[in-house]
Amino acid sequence: MKVTVLYFARLREALGRDRETLELPAGVTTVGELRGWLVARGSPWAEAFAEIRRIRAAVAQEMATDETPLGDGADVAFFPPVTGG
Amino acid sequence: MAVRIQREDFDAGAEIARLRAGDPRIGAVASFVGVARDRNDGAEVATLALEHYPGMTEKAIGVIVEQAKARWPVFEILVIHRVGDLKPLDQIVLVVVTGSHRGEAFAACEFVMDYLKTEAPFWKKESTPAGERWVDARESDEAARSRWQRPG
């Protein structure tokens, strides 16, 4: 399964990129599994996901939880708590 | 849909006039304008950069607007939120709600702002004398949103 992962704000800066297209291994089918897989890739994902508190996720532009399933070709976004308004 | 994300400033008076034009059912217009301050968390703020997630932002605010319309008998809701580089005194966000009576207009306006603060994907970065810093989310904003949640 292939997904596009988007990063915003502090997380985007910590990773030095705003997106990447990734081919996921068979066992990675949910947001939580993707998060774990990114962290397991090591630096800089491991540090960034550890240092930035309460990172949230969205799948197909809707707020997601760790249990939210990923679809092939989906946009998956990770970002810090929002601060608009 | 009356949700606009834009870099340009807005004219609240003109937006209110447009929203209620020709609708004699309207007896109340509630509005909120959020403005950039010159101090935050003990530091002077020179500029404010607002980032968002294009596409999701409009969608998320659209959902909030629909929730407000389902909950109160209001007519129209307009939300304008600016992005890009702002400075103290600049307007950031406008919410306007029209209804028959003030009670539902006030409530829906506050509901939209409380949800926007915690659910719409915007992020603020401030420049201060000590350098740039991302604004941290406030627990008080979570609390403000939680009070609208109903049991069941």
Molecular structure report:
The complex is a heterodimer of chains A (85) and B (152). Chain A has 85 residues and is α+β, with helices and mostly antiparallel strands. Helices cover 28% and strands 27% of the residues of chain A. Chain A contains three helices and five strands. Chain A has helices at residues 9-15, 31-40, 45-51, and strands at residues 2-7, 19-23, 56-59, 62-64, 75-79. In chain A, a hairpin with a 2-residue loop joins strand 3 (56-59) and strand 4. The radius of gyration of chain A is 12 Å and the shape is globular. The N and C termini of chain A lie far apart (36 Å). The model of chain A has no long low-confidence stretch (mean pLDDT 96). Chain B is α+β, with helices and mostly antiparallel strands. Chain B is built from four helices and ten strands. In chain B, a hairpin with a 2-residue loop joins strand 3 (39-40) and strand 4. The longest helix of chain B has 18 residues, at 102-119. Chain B is globular, with a radius of gyration of 16 Å. The two termini of chain B are 30 Å apart. Chain A binds chain B through residues 6, 8-10, 54, 58, 61-63, 77, 79-85, and chain B through 34, 50-53, 55-56, 59-60, 81, 92-93, 113, 116-125, 134-137.
List the helices and strands and how they pair.
The complex is a heterodimer of chains A (85) and B (152).
Chain A: E1 2-7, H1 9-15, E2 19-23, H2 31-40, H3 45-51, E3 56-59, E4 62-64, E5 75-79
Parallel strand pairs in A: 1-5
Antiparallel strand pairs in A: 1-2, 3-4, 3-5
Chain B: E1 3-6, H1 12-20, E2 28-35, E3 39-40, E4 43-44, E5 47-52, H2 56-71, E6 74-82, E7 84-86, E8 91-99, H3 102-119, E9 122-128, E10 131-134, H4 139-146
Parallel strand pairs in B: 1-6
Antiparallel strand pairs in B: 2-8, 3-4, 5-7, 5-9, 6-8, 9-10
Helix pairs in contact in B: 2-3, 3-4
